[in-house]
From TrEMBL:
NCBIfam families: sigma70-ECF. PANTHER family: RNA POLYMERASE ECF-TYPE SIGMA FACTO, RNA POLYMERASE SIGMA FACTOR HI_1459-RELATED. The keyword Methyltransferase does not apply. Gene3D superfamilies: 1.10.1740.10, Winged helix-like DNA-binding domain superfamily/Winged helix DNA-binding domain. Keywords: DNA-binding, Sigma factor, Transcription, Transcription regulation. Pfam families: Sigma70_r2, Sigma70_r4_2. Signal peptide: none annotated. The lineage of its organism: Bacteria, Bacillati, Actinomycetota, Actinomycetes, Mycobacteriales. Belongs to the sigma-70 factor family. ECF subfamily. Residues 23-87 form the RNA polymerase sigma-70 region domain. This is Sigma-70 family RNA polymerase sigma factor. CDD domains: Sigma70_r4 (cd06171). Residues 118-170 form the RNA polymerase sigma factor 70 region 4 type domain. It comes from Rhodococcus jostii.
Length: 180
């Protein structure tokens, strides 16, 4: 079944059709949530909120955009809502660079990967929200610029500018982590 058939079935209350439809795009929505929130716990909350909102609002889906674009929009909004809620409380993820126990003989590749992932997450968190959303949707959700433009309510040229500026800012923010 294609997306349109599954959406039609969902509108009749078919939970299995929604599970299949959501399953097709769940991984991309998860990556969007993870990159925006910066940790798996918040990403899980955002993904759950995304899927719940998608099911509840499916009757409002007009079909102007593709389903996965609509779902990504919901995922971004859910992830940003989680981030905003988190900012109002103290988080265990907010550290000043001290990451706990140092191992005597750490595996360099794993350690380097963790350091790199952490540096990218911190750098993404420092970007303006519009830039962060644009770069996450482009790089992690692999959405085309036209879909990102539709999501953000701007032109494709604006999306290209935001992504270009986000990449420049990320390069600047990540330079110390890359060249210690």
């Amino acid at each position: 079944m294609d997306d349109a058939d599954l959406i039609a079935a969902c509108r009749t209350g078919d939970h299995h059709a929604f599970a299949e439809l959501a399953g097709r795009y769940r991984t991309n929505a998860w990556h969007v949530c993870l990159q925006i929130t910066g940790n798996t716990h918040d990403a899980e909350d955002a993904l759950q909120d995304t899927l719940t909102a998608a099911w509840q609002n499916l009757p409002k889906f007009r079909g102007d955009a593709r389903f996965h674009t609509w779902l990504h929009r919901i995922a971004v909004n859910a992830a940003l809502a989680v981030v905003r809620r988190r900012k109002t409380t103290d988080s265990l993820d907010d550290t000043d660079g001290d990451y706990g126990i140092l191992l005597e003989d750490p595996a360099p590749r794993f350690d380097e990967q963790i350091t790199t992932i952490d540096a990218v997450r911190r750098a993404l968190a420092q970007l303006p929200e519009d830039f962060r959303v644009a770069i996450v949707l482009a790089e992690f959700a692999s959405l085309p610029y036209a879909d990102i433009a539709e999501h953000q309510g701007v032109t494709v040229a604006t999306v290209k500018t935001r992504i270009h500026r986000a990449r420049k800012q990320l390069a600047t923010l990540l330079a110390p982590a890359i060249d210690p």
